[in-house]
Amino acid sequence: MAAVLVAAMVVVLSVSVAESATVEYQFDVATMNVTRLCGSKSIVVVNGQFPGPTVSAREGDLVVVRVVNKAQYNMSIHWHGVRQLRSGWADGPAYITQCPIQPGQSYVYKFTITGQRGTLWPTLPQINDTSFVSNYTAKLRSLATEEYPAGVPQEVDRRFFFTVGLGTHPCAVNGTCQGPTNDSRFAAAVNNVSFVLPTTALLQSHYTGMSSGVYSSNFPAVPQSPFNYTGTPPNNTNVSNGTRLVVLSYGDAVELVMQGTSILGAESHPFHLHGFNFFVVGQGFGNFDPAKDPAKYNLVDPVERNTVGVPAAGWVAIRFRADNPGVWFMHCHLEVHVSWGLKMAWVVQDGSLPNQKLLPPPSDLPKC
């Protein structure tokens, strides 16, 4: 059964760490029939509420949420925007950091709020607002000062160039497909790799050192076959399948350029990175020019985010410090594109100090 990923709203308030406490909730997740716009459908709700309950926490609080699956689907919960420092077991994406919670089972998510405030939920622009949004967001700056710098990595240890966009898979023999042609079906890929979810959680495989047969660590750092990304698409739009990850050392300074393509039409892809905040140091339309565009990067006061829109037929450059050990999902936030494979994952190895290591898994971690 396909996993259902429920996103939860977390409101984080600023307060002295000395006042930190444990906040506990129980989420009973079930299906419920609702009627909207003269039509009825079954939806997934938490505690019978739609929208679901709000989790309120303060800086330093330990959040404990017992999730009981009373629906007929496998499911997990992702706490959007919470960094999950060393607590990847609570991040939520099924088969990435945990196996899903099966019907009739429960799982207790535990994580500490560290260095975060705000209402952690994305508001995405309309699909036809790319030009306005890009012009507006390009002017945004952080509140960095000389005394309190933004902390943008000035030197880079690892550089990556990812193409993000659509593609195709051949239709199965004697199959019926609704793709761009009668003999193909829609797919999506990062660097031409359409991500395939494993049957064992990636974080568990990484932690136990049993990755063989689950994933490989050879995700391409650059496109395997460069082309005019925003020009006339190539004739061959097929993508490859794989569960391929990037492995980073603890503390690596990473620069990632995400380049949108025009294959099957150019569109903006909102990409979300789990486990980290990143700095948006540059963006533009057309093909990224590695000889000229980096000179225009803002390395002083860029905005810090965990989700960014790759402009339609354009690119965006981000930098972040790999200071959170574990396995971290990165994906387009358009659900249909995620289902087509527009996603990948990063492995961040443990550091040398005790506070730089992934914590052990909880005893009630769901089994696949």
UniProtKB/TrEMBL annotation:
GO MF annotations in UniProt: copper ion binding; oxidoreductase activity
Keyword Metal-binding assigned: yes
Signal sequence region: none
Domain named Plastocyanin-like: residues: 29-121, 224-351
One GO CC term, this protein: extracellular region
Keywords: Copper, Metal-binding, Oxidoreductase, Repeat, Secreted
CDD domains: CuRO_1_LCC_plant (cd13849), CuRO_3_LCC_plant (cd13897)
SUPFAM superfamilies in UniProt: Cupredoxins (SSF49503)
PROSITE patterns in the record: MULTICOPPER_OXIDASE1, MULTICOPPER_OXIDASE2
Subcellular localization(s) per the UniProt record: Secreted
Family designation: Belongs to the multicopper oxidase family.
Protein name per Swiss-Prot or TrEMBL: Laccase-4
Organism: Aegilops tauschii
